[in-house]
Write a structure and sequence with these properties.
This protein is an all-alpha fold. The protein has a single domain (about 1-85), classed as Methane Monooxygenase Hydroxylase, Chain G, domain 1 (Up-down Bundle). Helices cover about 90% and strands about 0% of the residues. The chain has three helices and no strands. The protein has helices at about 1-35, 35-55, 60-85. The N and C termini lie far apart (about 65 Å). The model has no long low-confidence stretch (mean pLDDT about 95). This is Small ribosomal subunit protein bS20. GO terms for molecular function: rRNA binding; structural constituent of ribosome. Keywords: Ribonucleoprotein, Ribosomal protein, RNA-binding, rRNA-binding.
Amino acid sequence: MKRLHRACRLALRNRSLMSRVAAAVKDARLAIRLRCREDVMRALATMARSIDVAHAKGALHRNCAARRKRALFANAANVLRDDAPA
């Protein structure tokens, strides 16, 4: 019984963490699409922090966390590089 209760408690915590990650990723993608440099930097910092927390708590695998962050940072870099004055 203890194992079942612990599993339910951890599943609830993991669901909350992953929901937070999904919201942060969604906000980051929206900021990237809108191409506002300040919003992009703020959203990327929030997204990276939420992914790091989810990884630290065990809700997200190390490679999955790195892959998600790398993809969004690369996407933001491409967008911000295109907007930079030549």
